[in-house]
Amino acid sequence: QSALTQPPSASGYPGQSVTISCTGTSSDVGGYNYVSWYQQHPGKVPKLIISEVSKRPSGVPDRFSGSKSGNTASLTVSGLQAEDEGDYFCSSYAGRNKFGIFGGGTKLTVL
Amino acid sequence: EVQLLESGGRLVQPGGSLRLSCAPSGINLNNLIMTWVRQAPGKGLQWVSGIAGDGDDTYYPDSMKGHFTISRDTSKNTLYLQMNDLRVDDTAVYYCAAWNFGGKYFDLWGRGTLVTVSS
Predict the structure, then answer these.
(1) pLDDT tens digit at each of 119 positions of chain B
(2) How far is CA B58 from CA B54, B96, B103, in A?
(3) Are A46 and B45 inside 8 Å of each other by CB?
């Protein structure tokens, strides 16, 4: 299974909104409503911020939102804050016995 | 506080073997679907293996079959990853992570252990 495709970088000014895309195929992103997003700060452990396309775990600010259209999922960060800077990885369920496949990651910079 | 703690990572020569361990605190792994996920330096995440709650079924991406073996010791409440014939491109931080079956996502993550394969 090939990795999902994410842009290598994204940026925005504080207070702005940024959207990160995650493109797969009908065998993963397009085939299931099981896309998750993880935030990772340098030297830290990945943290789940979105599950099942658009669900936010407890404690994740509502500035983070997820959506999906066809084979492409998106993460939108609204009202950018300095602490949002980091790497963001998408993941999609890819079928029985395959668990999750990941995107290559997007480095978000707050200008 | 619920935590996962990996251990066993170190510098190893190409062709060598290594066994990683993942021990929890504050949680019983024995009813959880557990996985290993790795991250090469400066790179993305890659699912490496998974094991059912009862330990009877194991899962690997095609690229890992025969290369790694996941197992668990229920008496010790510990997860393992046996890594054989290690290659330079196996160099990575290896995380153990619980798999949320209902939502199909990687839930609780350990802090990771670094495996460096180099001569």
Answers:
(1) 889 999 999 999 999 999 999 999 888 888 899 999 999 999 999 999 999 887 789 999 988 888 999 999 989 999 999 999 999 999 999 999 999 999 999 999 999 999 999 99
(2) 10, 14, 19
(3) yes
The tokens of B53 are what? Answer: 């709650």
B109–A contact, CB cutoff 8 A:
yes
- Please give the angle made by the CA atoms of B18, B66 and B17, to the nearest 5 degrees: 15
Contact B103 A32 (CB under 8 A): no
Cα A111 from Cα A85, distance rounded (Å): 9
Supply φ then ψ for residue A84, to 5 degrees: -80, -15
CA distance B108 to B119: 34
Residue A82 phi, psi dihedral angles, 5° rounding: -55, -35
User: Residue B109 and residue A45: Cβ atoms within 8 Å?
Assistant: yes
